[in-house]
Specification:
binds flavin-adenine dinucleotide, about 5% strand, five-stranded parallel beta sheet, two-stranded antiparallel sheet, 22 helices, binds iron/sulfur cluster, 7 strands
Length: about 500
């Protein structure tokens, strides 16, 4: 008879730690540890996550648990609809400790403040030996970021990015940036024409595990936003690696040039659509960057594409995580512009006459995806110009995107898109009129509003809202050196013109 396995320690693996490279598994022992992976209602319902997001995470968790078992780990897997599920991570941890009579836990720090503090409060009030390891999937540790910030008056991504380039030696020729410049962003602002052909991100067929999860999500979350089917995301590391290969081969060469472009009915363009894989651990940041650098060095992709992608990952992604942990708790309640409007209902339905908003929101509902410029300059820009409460904007973004975890979503929303942190993350608000959207997209041609008209019934709402936003917030923003020219333009306008902008904006906002 085989000896019964008697574990003496639990290793926790959370839903966004799905890699055998996570610190606790690297330090674990297959002969004496048991891995605990729990699907719990607290995590599935603290916002009303998109059905595709829930399906993606639960299916990836179940596949990862199977992989660990095949690799010789003992795994205790708790399903969301399991009969004794307590509904919380600490509840499941406590239940496992009691049932297995174990007094020791090895844990990798949680990525979100909410869960991290819940776990540490529970651990400090219990009598078990609880060891927490840092999540070293990130290139810059939390303390290292704090040290880097030090006494700097301004924390800017571009300075941080150079430091990470040096630290990783990515795109470096000795001490110098490869290609002679740190940043090739100026080459990455082309609009896309309708006749370009775009590679669709790699799609995967569902297996029995995913089909079961799809059924469970439909049953338990019928009212949540979005459609779970068709479901085509990768849910294993093997498939995520194929998606990475496919991106490098087909899309990376044009990624940079058309990074800011938007086209109706083309949700993905040349974007990687890898963030959800990266954020749950199916892919690692450095492996993507090394592939991009290699593609440039062997002549497959231009430097503006490789550098652009690497900057997003080792620059922005690491930077926002640093800001999140530097400023939490409290960051998500920031409301520098003191706004109070509720999020318009059409954010949940796409039912609006503004073609750019309708297209971005409908695509979000369908795919649980929108690319960066759609998030920043369409839905984010509109919410900021309209004066929506940042907390409601934050909740929307956290719900609707399959890559949304608070550590990365909140700084992008609160800081970058809403300027609600007063300039910690961005040096000025990303505010724009319809002109920018028209330049970078083909939305305006299909809109009931006219982007060239500035005020009145038929005018593009972004035009009047833009000036009204600046006027409304002039006491807070007028002193910003990066807005000097804009405020000078406003002050040179006739009083009649200014009033006409403000009146148009107020009429539009009154109808929201
Ligand atoms: P690509 O355009 O192909 O970029 C490559 C990778 O770079 C991404 O996969 C991502 O990992 C990284 N990246 C790019 N920009 C950023 C950024 N600003 N911050 C962090 N990483 C970045 N990203 C998330 O991962 N989760 C979120 O919840 C999220 N919410 C956002 C909300 C707003 C308002 C804005 C403006 C941006 C948000 N982003 C978020 C950043 C960015 O929009 C997404 O990472 C990107 O659109 C994901 O699509 P992709 O994988 O095709 O990215
Ligand atoms: Fe959007 Fe204005 Fe263009 Fe319509 S006209 S698509 S509202 S920017």
């Amino acid at each position: 008879m085989a000896p019964t396995f008697k574990p003496d320690r639990i290793i926790t693996v959370l839903g966004d730690q799905l890699t055998d490279q996570i610190a606790a598994l690297r330090s674990g022992n297959r002969g004496t540890d048991i891995v605990l992976i729990s699907e719990v209602m607290d995590e599935a319902s603290y916002v009303r996550h998109h059905k595709k997001k829930l399906t993606f995470i639960f299916s990836a968790m179940r596949h990862f648990a199977d992989q660990l078992s095949r690799d010789g780990w003992n795994v205790r897997y708790v399903k969301l609809d399991g009969p004794q599920n307590t509904g919380s991570i600490v509840g499941e941890l406590q239940r496992a400790l009691t049932e297995l009579n174990i007094k020791s836990v090895l844990h990798t720090e949680a990525s979100e403040y909410r869960l991290s503090s819940e776990i540490s409060q529970w651990a400090s009030s219990s009598d078990i030996k609880f060891t927490t390891l840092p999540d070293d999937r990130f290139i810059f540790g939390r303390d290292e970021f704090r040290e880097w910030v030090g006494v700097r008056k301004q924390i800017r991504m571009e300075h941080f990015y150079r430091q990470v380039r040096r630290k990783t030696a990515l795109l470096m020729d000795d001490e110098k940036p490869a290609g002679g410049k740190w940043n090739f962003d100026a080459e990455n602002r082309s609009a896309a024409s309708d006749d370009l052909s775009f590679p669709h991100p790699m799609q995967f067929v569902t297996d029995q595990i995913t089909d079961e999860v799809l059924e469970m999500v439909e049953k338990l979350f019928p009212e949540n936003i979005g459609q779970s089917r068709p479901f085509w995301f990768a849910v294993t590391r093997k498939d995520a690696l194929s998606a990475l290969d496919d991106f490098i081969k087909h899309a990376l060469p044009h990624f940079g040039t058309y990074q800011d472009a938007m086209l109706e009915d083309e949700p993905f363009l040349f974007h990687s659509v890898l963030s959800q894989y990266l954020n749950v651990g199916l892919l690692q940041p450095l492996e993507i960057c090394l592939r991009a650098e290699e593609a440039w060095r062997c002549g497959h992709a231009p430097i503006n594409a490789a550098e652009g992608l690497i900057r997003q990952i080792i620059g922005w992604r690491e930077f926002v995580r640093g800001i999140y942990w530097l400023k939490m708790p409290g960051y998500i309640e920031s409301n520098f512009l003191e706004t109070s409007r509720s999020l318009p209902d059409f954010y949940w339905t796409g039912d609006t006459e503004m073609a750019c908003m309708r297209s971005t929101i409908e695509q979000t509902i369908e795919q649980s995806y929108a690319h960066h410029i759609q998030r920043l300059m369409v839905t984010g820009n509109f919410a900021m110009l309209a004066g929506v409460k940042p907390s409601e904007v934050h909740e929307w973004y956290l719900s609707v995107y399959s890559d949304a975890f608070e550590w990365v979503e909140a700084p992008n929303v609160i800081g970058m898109s809403q300027f609600a942190d007063g300039g910690v993350l961005a040096s000025k608000p990303y505010a724009a009129s319809g002109n920018y959207i028209n330049k970078m997209s083909n939305y305006c041609g299909n809109c009931r509003f006219n982007v060239k008209v500035k005020t009145g019934e038929d005018a593009c709402p972004f035009n009047a809202l833009y000036w009204n936003f600046l006027d409304r917030n002039s006491d807070k923003l007028n002193g910003n050196p990066r807005l000097g020219n804009t405020y000078r333009t406003w002050s040179k306008m006739s009083i009649e013109k200014q009033s006409s902008y403000n009146r148009s904006a107020e009429i539009f906002l009154g109808k929201l």
